[in-house]
Inverse folding.
């Protein structure tokens, strides 16, 4: 299990990189189009390129793509100090993250046997969840202390350290592969054993991203300390739940279907609570339920993907599934925000709850 730790750290880097800049873009509140583009450029690069780099990890082995992606992330982050352009640096980071994120997932799948895969992905998912949750908080602190230069240099140093750590990951040789046509790929990715866990991951990531963005809005009257504590509670709950669900999955106490369904329904219940329970109580209940729900989904969903994927195409499968996560990361907040503009924030939260609940079935 120690060989998985540097892979978990790589997961933290991509999640932290995705959300850490958001807290410093408030100066663009008068230009919402520019704000949206800056937030989307990182995820946009990942959506397009993750399947490509996942396939490359299958072709040359996960470790070179993993380390190369982390080093490219460090270079792209450092480049901000020279070019001073957030959009350019974010695009470079997104391209790099599109490389090392699916490579890390593929390495976790290949390095762990079926009997320990749930716990391994539970730990990997917990680190990513912490990165998503603490990104805006820690990013805001770093921007306050040293502007964007300090934030990007911190991300560069973090990626470089993790790249060195990943040298300890065992080298995994490419596996023999049969020729695959586009039709074969579409057929494989349209099967239920791929679509169900991918949809569950998309819904759980939408829940996490939306809770991080909108629960502080609900509790804004209580001040930044309280809203920060609510986000921290969300992250802590998700981090504690994932390894335990993974361990229960490996022991046969939880099935893949039951684990993902229970997690999605818990996350949906969290948004119902946020919408109908007034005050700080609703915010805290929602933080616990969404954290527990999103945490319960990731280990069984990733384990199911690893189990169903041809071993020689694990990277391609993980990269394609990660596209679903990125779409959920962007789609959840967009859905809630759109409904909130048309109606109200509670309506938006209930709308997302309905979508997540439907995904459970």
């Amino acid at each position: 299990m120690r060989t998985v730790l540097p892979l978990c750290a790589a997961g933290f880097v991509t999640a932290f990189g995705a959300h850490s800049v958001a807290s410093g873009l408030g100066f663009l509140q008068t230009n919402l189009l520019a704000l949206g583009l800056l937030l989307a450029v990182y995820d946009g690069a990942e959506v397009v390129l993750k399947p490509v780099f996942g396939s490359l990890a299958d072709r040359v082995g996960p470790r070179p793509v993993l380390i190369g992606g982390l080093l490219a992330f460090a270079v792209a982050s450092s480049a901000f100090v020279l070019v001073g352009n957030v959009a350019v640096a974010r695009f470079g980071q997104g391209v790099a993250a599109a490389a090392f994120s699916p490579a890390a997932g593929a390495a976790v799948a290949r390095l762990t046997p079926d009997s320990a895969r749930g716990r391994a992905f539970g730990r990997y998912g917990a680190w990513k969840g912490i990165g998503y949750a603490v990104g805006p908080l820690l990013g805001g602190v770093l921007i306050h202390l040293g502007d964007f230069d300090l934030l990007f240099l911190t991300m560069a140093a973090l990626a470089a350290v993790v790249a060195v750590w990943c040298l300890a990951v065992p080298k995994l040789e490419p596996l023999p592969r049969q020729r695959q046509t586009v039709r074969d790929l579409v057929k494989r990715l349209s099967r239920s054993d791929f679509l169900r866990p991918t949809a569950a991951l998309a819904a759980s990531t939408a829940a996490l991203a939306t809770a991080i963005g909108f629960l502080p809005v609900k509790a804004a009257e209580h001040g930044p300390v309280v809203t920060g504590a609510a986000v921290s509670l969300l992250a802590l709950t998700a981090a504690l739940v994932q390894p335990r669900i993974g361990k229960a999955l490996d022991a046969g106490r939880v099935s893949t279907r039951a684990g993902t369904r229970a997690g999605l329904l818990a996350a949906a219940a969290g948004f119902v609570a946020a919408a109908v329970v007034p005050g700080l109580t609703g915010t805290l209940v929602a933080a616990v339920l969404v954290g527990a729900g999103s945490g319960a989904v990731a280990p069984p969903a990733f384990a199911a993907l690893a189990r169903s994927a041809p071993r020689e195409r694990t990277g391609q499968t993980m990269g394609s599934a990660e596209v679903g996560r990125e779409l959920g990361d962007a789609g959840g907040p967009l859905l809630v925000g759109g409904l909130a503009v048309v109606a109200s924030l509670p309506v938006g939260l209930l709308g997302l709850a309905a979508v997540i609940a439907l995904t459970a079935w």
Remarks:
- The CA atoms of residues 78 and 249 lie 41 Å apart.
